[in-house]
Amino acid sequence: MTDHHSYTFFVLSGLALLLSTLFLGSTTTNAQYLNIQIELEPEFKTEILNPLNFGQIVIGSGNQIINLGDPRMGVFSITAINAQTVRLSIDNSNTLKHSNPSVTDIIPFNIQGAYNNDGINEYKNAKLFDGDHIYTQISDKVSGNSFSWEILYIYIFGSFNVGDIQGGVYSGNIYLTVDFD
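^ that's the sequence the OP posted. Answer follows.
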């Protein structure tokens, strides 16, 4: 009984198709082709909350330390989607040079970094960089597919040694690089 209904339906469907073709005649259909491309870039915002500040130092004062938590340490924030993975790296010249190129005195320094990805600007919860870089997510609060804007805090600190050098302004560059994966 089931086979008879299937066969009847097939014949009726075929007949309906044939009749519609005969009555409508030949028709031309125009196909449309739609090509969609979307390029997604990670959106983020960086902000300097407190610049690294060596301040004024007395000649010959020796080793000067800016510890994690010192008011002179650099504090930066990155606001991005919580699940984004970033590579943070610190590159520097390891020396401060006098503003007068004829003065060859230098001040050696050592820079370190730490980060806090729990969304709170609290250096006591910060994790130290492993060497001069670290891979981490913007937030350690990622669960499932819920995405939200979160803040990662970066702390820059270190030490320098001021020997018996000529007075003046000494400067150098420290690069904090943020790469998104």
